[in-house]
Amino acid sequence: MEKAVHLSTKAGPEVPGEPTKTGTSMVDSAAAAVQSFTPINQIHQHLCAFHFYAYDMTRQVEAHHFCGHINEDMRQCLIYDGPDANARLIGLEYIVTEKLFMTLPDEEKKLWHTHEWEVKGGFLFMPGVPELVQRQDLEKVAKTYGKTYHFWQVDLGHELPIGLPNIMAAVTRDGQLYPEMVKETEKKYGISIDKERESRAYMTGPEHGIHPLANGGGKGLKLEVREVDLKPVESVPRVFV
């Protein structure tokens, strides 16, 4: 029996609930006029790429990253299932340089994936940004590592974020992504992944090569819930009396 294939390049089903009411919109507008959204305003770029579930490569999702730098060695990204106003917030990704990655404990390194082939293969791009401009930043991204969790399984058509968070992985070689998924994305954004690949052939990955523990250490990764005894308040040392 063939295994079911799940891929997503389009927004998921409509989220259940009543349309936003005028009163709610007015309150939102009033709050927005006086509040600061400083963390969100640090977002400076939109990256489009593909993720697959770290325990099931047949489940693949087009992921739109909206990223901001914390500093030169780390950036953080909100991940949506599309670039439109009604897009769903489905996950997040932390991206670090090789320097920071190498400071992580070995067990932690397994949760991080590489970006070298994702960039060099042409599978990660900035929609609407000229390739010459993109390359200035993608040269850096190719050397980084990312840690990604998705909370909303839009590839299964879930109307709400159901179940546990999932560790996600990125493409590390040819043949991992569904051709129809790639073609749909190329058509939608007017790009050619083959041409992107040609223009990035000179790029290089991490200075010390891809760490053997990255990308799950070559194994699948899946989160599971385990019941444990709940520590009562009485057992927690009191700091304030």
From TrEMBL:
Domain of life: Eukaryota
Region entry Disordered, spans: 1-24
InterPro entries: OBAP-like
Pfam families reported in the protein's UniProt record: DUF1264
Family (UniProt): Belongs to the OBAP family.
Family matches, as PANTHER family: OIL BODY-ASSOCIATED PROTEIN 1A, PTHR31360
Protein name: Oil body-associated protein 1A
